[in-house]
Amino acid sequence: MTTVRQRRVGKGTEAAEDQPSEETNVKPAGKIPSDHTGGKLWNILSITVGGIVAISLGLLTSVYVATLHENDLWFSNIKEVEREISFRTECGLYYSYYKQMIQAASIQQGLHGLVYDNKTESVRTINILERMNVYQEVFLSILYRILPIQQYLEPVYFYIYTLFGLQAVYVIALYVTSWLLSGTWLSGLLAACWYITNRVDTTRVEFTIPLRENWALPFFAVQIAAITYLLRTHLRPVQERLTLLVVFIATFLFSLTWQFNQFMMLIQALALFILDCLDMLPTAKVTWLYIIQISGLLLVCVLQFFNSMILGSLLISFNTSVLIARTIQKNLKKGGLLNRLGKLILHALLVLCLTLLINKCIKKILNLESDEHIFKFLKAKFGFGATRDFDANLYLCEEAFGLLPLNTFSRLSDTLLFYIYLFVLLLMAVAAVVVAFRNLSGSKQVQFMEKMEECTITLKPDAAYSLVHTVLFGCLALSTMRMKYLWTSHMCVFASFGLCSTEVWKLLLKCVHLYTAQRAQVIKYSVPIITLVYISYKFWPGIMDELSELREFYDPDTVELMNWIKSNTPNTAVFAGSMQLLAGVKLCTGRTLTNHPHYEDKNLRERTKQIYQIYAKRSPEAVHGILRSFGTDYVILEDSICYERRHSRGCRLRDLLDVANGHIMDGVGENEPDLKPSLYPRFCEEIKKNLPSYTVHFTRVFQNKTFHVYKLAKHK
């Protein structure tokens, strides 16, 4: 098990707004204000200062997470094998392809090795570029080879510095989004500070560097910033076209770098659908966003050699269904309240039925089953019946796929983020309900419009999108902890926007009959500044202490295992074991694997379940036959899995295998009535007794406190 230990040696200014106020909808009287030139210069100065602050905060965040990574592992001082082991589980698998491309004799040979890969899954040749989102590793490796930096920068540092550099892009994008929403870069400053001080809940890049989300989320943030700008009113045609181009590029890069892109963009498409139905967004712009999502995903599909999982995604089916349904129902936004509500209900049902029908047809034609484990997991998670499916239970028992822990909210509350977020969310939600009712009722009465004026001003299209976006991704985060990073980062944006928004304070002050323009402006700047002072005072000492704490990587058992494999096994040897460990075996030794952590393939999932019989109650002959069917030469057993205590009874890997095999689980507790005792003891325990029935098939060739390696006999 990898651990870290202490080192033994000592390391309110306004932005220029393209979005005019509501009052600019009237025709100008033709007079030019006397302070026009001064205002223009002030806007230029504000944009310049705000831009400098954004770039500075982005760079500081990159340096901050890079320093934490170095301080935690002493990365610059440890051996190469230790650096590679620090890329745990699937992180190591992804990084191994970057290393493979770097070490290839040529770029062409490296690409050929990825397209015709026979070392990631034994006795199979697979196309890595089709199966996995590793184009970023390919691009970086090519860039490293062609740039004259080999003498100054090791490949691993070029890789991790790129990821830390993307954190700068991430923070700048969050900053700009908040600035665009509120109209002041003070909001962006507050959003960035909240992102940094809530780092535990906003990012995990410093200890899971190659994880796909660390590549993808910066581009997702850029896309959201571009959408926020696109939804402004009165954009010139050239501005709109350029913004759509930015949205497309960001959407494409986001889709290219993360296999879960389709599910995130489905939620985004659902937000657009809801707002379009409630007449809160311009239909033409929403249509363009639907088309961009489809085209970006299809382009990724082409680059991934027509990956069937992309073609069978719910996103493509949903967006296509919305566009078809819209052509069928052309008068959705006409009529009274009840008439429109009836039309919208029929429209939603039509879109739902079309989505399911199109998706079912695509999957039937393509014989697609790659994502069935996700739907089995969702079905079991939300209580639609218990399941004995091994893959679904594997997800259900992982903490990362469980509900968001309550202590998350206490941490977010320490920085005032959660309290302010709830305040802004409640206020904006009330405004959204009122505006939606007004839009659906189609009332044109002047008196009604005057009463609702403050709500209309508060909920501009970009703010409406941000509201629904944060609500939907909040629901996702609450249900699945691993997805909280999509929500918490936007929480920083949403809360800072509300705190610095003239419209929010105007609405609140009018509700208590205290509104004046001057008072709203004073509160708009004073409250965020006070919040920034509080955050700085409370958290700056902690950040300094964190940066001064020095530790080092310490995992001698895994290092010993990897060194033994490199020194004592042939390069063509095939290894079986847990998915997490084998990713490290491939990275550190280059040996062939039987299975790995990239789980989005039905054949691999079935193969993994078979390999994991080494931790089940099976006979030595059965286990040997299974392993040899995948060409296995060596099997690695881990005590941390065989005698697992991390999970409770029913969620230990051996329990999942027992239930899937129809066997009674170990330990005190209830079992389902149809489960029966196994005829054989647990393989991983019994093999260590060196009984003749086991030694005829398996010979122990290595062991330490954590790992046991057995060589398989090759019977004819």
UniProtKB/TrEMBL annotation:
The keyword Flavoprotein does not apply. InterPro entries: Dpy-19/Dpy-19-like, Dpy19L3. It is a multi-pass membrane protein. Coiled coil: none annotated. Signal peptide: none annotated. Residues 1-10 have a biased composition (Basic residues). Keywords: Glycosyltransferase, Membrane, Transferase, Transmembrane, Transmembrane helix. This is D19L3 mannosyltransferase. It comes from Furnarius figulus. The lineage of its organism: Eukaryota, Metazoa, Chordata, Craniata, Vertebrata. The gene is Dpy19l3.
